[in-house]
Write a structure and sequence with these properties.
single chain; Ribosomal protein L11, N-terminal domain; Arc Repressor Mutant, subunit A; 3-stranded antiparallel sheet; two-stranded parallel sheet; 5 strands; 51% helix; elongated
Length: 248
């Protein structure tokens, strides 16, 4: 059983029988129109993005399989939320809040790359990435949201595959994103002030003691790395061997 493979780059939801797809599939004796329709169905949520597509065709039976290449889940979440990157302290500082429909949308976009055997399991995989990035879902931190998911609260919505939000829901989400960004900036100002206070009170302390004080004050690691005295870092560097032997 021989398999022919066609790999092309198409615009999400807008593949056509024109080059490069049509001419590549023509000699294989398959229903090009049906394959194009299936590709557009699978890539519809990638509107505005170039999507790598692989079509594997059985030369004897003419059966085909379509595989969609997708960006990493984290990049899809960044695009969906409009943020620049995830949170440095995802368990305490949240950068965005998504609706269930948007989680379903991304789980469908990543369907071919996820391990989950059903829609609910695939949604859980996306939620795992949300948690690592500091993204809330339906106004809740992911662990809390997962408890509701276990109770079946969102089963019907997930099975329905609903991915569209109303104009009002989108506006509310943008307002929430702005509010969360402002809250993060205010928290950062508080952390910076506390770090400077600790540094002022521990001028003669070594780096280890300063770090311990900052950790005790529950400052994020990112803030601690920014505010540890430069002199201490240089001193630590001088402790390295003057000449290193090459690895054997």
């Amino acid at each position: 059983m021989a398999t022919e493979v066609v790999e092309v780059l198409v615009q999400g939801g807008k593949a056509t029988a024109a080059p490069p797809l049509g001419p590549a599939l023509g000699p294989l004796g398959v229903n090009i129109g049906q394959i194009v329709a299936d590709i557009n169905k699978k890539t519809g949520d990638f509107a505005g993005m170039q999507v790598p597509v692989k079509v594997s065709v059985d030369s004897d039976t003419k059966e085909y399989k379509i595989s969609i290449g997708t960006p990493p889940t984290s990049q899809l979440l960044i695009k969906e939320t409009g943020i620049k990157n995830g949170s440095g302290t995802p368990n305490t500082a949240f950068v965005a809040d998504l609706k269930m429909e948007q989680i379903i949308k991304i789980s469908k976009m990543k369907e071919d790359a996820l391990l989950g055997k059903d829609p609910i399991m695939r949604v859980k995989e996306i939620l795992g990435t949300c948690q690592s990035m500091g993204i809330k879902v339906e106004g809740k931190a992911v662990p809390e949201f997962l408890e509701e998911l276990k109770l079946g609260k969102y089963d019907q919505k997930i099975v329905s595959g609903k991915t569209k939000l109303s104009a009002q829901e989108l506006q509310d989400q943008e307002d929430e994103r702005v509010r969360m960004q402002k809250e993060m900036e205010e928290k950062r100002d508080e952390f910076v002030a506390k770090a400077n206070e600790i540094l002022a009170n521990m001028k003669d302390a070594d780096r280890k003691d300063i770090e311990a004080a900052m950790l005790e004050a529950e400052l994020p690691l990112q803030i601690i790395s920014e505010f540890l005295p430069v002199e201490e870092k240089k001193e630590a560097a001088t402790e390295q061997p003057a000449e290193e032997k090459p690895a054997e």
